[in-house]
Amino acid sequence: MAKSSGGYACTECGWRAPKWVGRCGECQQWGTVQVVGTPGATLARTVQASAPASGREARPITELSGEPVRHRPTGIGELDRVLGGGIVPGAAVLFSGEPGVGKSTLLLDAAARAAERGGRVLYASGEESTGQIRMRAERTGALHDTLYLASETDLATVLGHIEAVQPELVIVDSVQTLASDRVDGGAGGPAQVREVAAALIRVAKEHGVPVILVGHVTKDGNVAGPRLLEHLVDVVCHFEGDRRSTLRFLRTLKNRFGPTDEVGCFEMSGSGIQEVPDPSGLFLSRSTEPVSGTCATIALEGRRAIPVEVQALVASTTAPNPRRVTSGVDSARVAMVLAVLERRARVKLHDKDVYVSTVGGVRLAEPAADLAIALAVLSAITDQPLAHELAAVGEISLAGEVRPVVGGEQRRAEAQRLGYRRLVDSDSGTLARARALALGE
After folding, report:
1. Which of 5, 235, 260, 440 is deepest in the core (most CB within 10 A)?
2. Residues annotated in the binding site for ATP, as ranges?
């Protein structure tokens, strides 16, 4: 009789191994390889079929109700924008982000707003004591009589709190700090995270109570724990921002009830996190007079068009290797734009230091900022300021062409709304033509 391929398997992708290893050889996840049988024994199991419960039989899709999903607004406009209109009853939402970015503060504000509408909200934290949460709530104005706090790390106790309070919203901070005594291993392990998430999601589906799970992230920015966690939940949100900046962005990576290309803007302050419905003035300088080396562009964050100012400084140097310093823009794309300027536009940059930055700490990673970077560098090297009412949007190819970008009409409409009467884009055709239009040559 042929032997089985082994008694260990990855709980994420199903990869099998003849002996235990710490890292899966297929999906490269750590701690997911577990014993599923003795070596030489088959891993297949036979499950006896059972009749479905009454009311849960399979039915033709044409007989099912086609009513749209009902969203309950949270009271925070930017959060509702990202979620597709609000939180759906019975939905499981995974909320991730780096430590200190403001996840707990934002969710505590959302919990207080839900309590103000008359519903009971349970905020269960395994990281902070109730006293610490109360202090933050006083600072941010999130105190309410129907907002219940619990500091627990045991899954069964949290489920008991849910049964006792009967809340309309449950927030668990975080899923990696809870543990069940029915599963071996410490809190945060793959098996524990799966068990905790499955139990809370089951409560959400059975009782129609939305559950928000806060998830830790790894140093790579991914949600810590098994990848299965992101598959189980209905919505995956990621809260991001630079600690050196007060700006925060909320994005959806998965949403079964709405779009996944919306972005919410928030600003961190001493009194908590404030939503920014119109971020058009956050990334522009306050100078009233035109300054050389600056050029505005229209960036797309999800479905939202945001004006961003790109600044460049060019200085002569005697060093054999001139410096190329960037902040807020992709250094590789800046190097490519400088090479195109030197080769196609005959601009000498091999003996000059070039500094390129954005205003407000925003990061531009899309090719649409290429033309604004090029015009800012040209303005800096010629010391000719660009007009305040001019904006540039376009991708620069290695041949020196200005190519169209995604969302061109939306960017043009936003530029007109903000008062940019001149928009240099792919209609200029070439970099030389764009330079002439921008500098008036």
Report:
1. 235
2. 97-104
Please give the class, per CATH, of domain 72-277. Answer: alpha beta
CA–CA separation, 50 vs 32, rounded Å? Answer: 30
Instruction: Find the helix packing angle between 370-382 and 331-344, rounded to 10°.
Output: 60
| pTM score | 0.76
Binding-site residue set: 97-104
Q: What are the tens digits of pLDDT across the range 208-258? A: 999 999 998 887 777 877 778 899 999 999 998 877 778 888 999 999 998
CATH code that applies to domain 281-439: 3.30.230.10
Cis before 379 (ω within 30)? no
Query: Do 239 and 102 meet the contact criterion of CB atoms below 8 Å apart?
Result: yes
Query: What whole-number distance in Å separates Cα of residue 206 and Cα of residue 244?
Result: 43
Q: Which residue has the higher pLDDT, 66 or 252?
A: 252
Parse the chain into domains and list their residue ranges. 1-45, 72-277, 281-439
Question: What's the CA gap between 314 and 332, in Å, rounded?
Answer: 18
Residue pair 273/109 in contact by the 8 Å Cβ criterion: yes
- Round to whole Å and give the CA distance between 394 and 434: 10
**Residue 216 · residue 192 · CB < 8 Å:** no
